[in-house]
Structures are given as structure tokens and as C-alpha cells.
Amino acid sequence: MDKLELDDRVSHLERRVSLLFALLALVIPVGLIGAIMFTARSMPYAPVTSPPVVLSERPLLPHAFAFETELRSLLDLQQQGLITSDDFGVKKVDILGRSMEFGDEVGAVKAAKALNDDHIITTAEYEVLKRKILKLDK
Questions:
Q1: Torsion (CA) 63, 66, 68, 69 in degrees, nearest 10
Q2: How far, rounded to the nearest angstrom, does the alpha carbon of residue 44 sit from its chain's CA centroid?
Q3: Which pLDDT value is given to residue 86?
Q4: Does this model's pTM top 0.85?
């Protein structure tokens, strides 16, 4: 075998090896991605759960009233920075200005007092709300 024939065979082998490496460079990542996807598919589904949102330090009365729940929720939104204090004030006026019916007037007054104690409503707002609950302004 002469030198030219040997050089030709070497270059032919080098081309085969470089082609083989190029194929491996494509096959290995595709195989890894396939293995990851197969493993992910075969894993049991575990839903992500988040802790419950606590709206207030004070627990709500057993019979929570709509005005109390709404005001505490709004305060929580304000404290999280999701609404401004102006938005809170406008919505608070809207909630306190609605017509309300109460089956349990004593419970409603206690809920209003709790809002006042927690500084969610002012003393003046509490007095107006109390008179509204007890139907003293007729």
C-alpha cells in the first residue's frame, strides 16, 4: 500500500468519525430530553397548595355579616398594596351606605364594634352604622 492510498483511507476514516460525532451530538440531547419528559410524565401529580389567606388577626363572629367581611377583605387588599387607601375609603363609604337587613341585630352591632376596635371604621362611622342596624333613625 503506498502513501497516497494510506492517506486516502485515513481521510475517509476521519470523515466517518466526524460524521459519527456529529450524529452523537444530535442524538444525545434528544435522548436526554426524551428521558426527562418520560420521567416527568410517569411521576405522580402533586398539586401545589398555598397556605390559606388570613384576613385579620381577630376571628370573625360565627355569623359573619357581609359588611364586616367586605371591609376586612378590603383592608387586607390595602395592606397588601393591591388597592390604595383612597380606594379603600371610597369602597368603605359605599359599603356603609348600602341598605342592610339583619336577622341578628345584636350580632351585627358586635361586628360593627369589632370593626371599630380594629380601627377599620371610625367611631363616627360606628355610631352611624349602629343606629342603622338598630333602626333608630326612622
A1: 90
A2: 24
A3: 93
A4: no
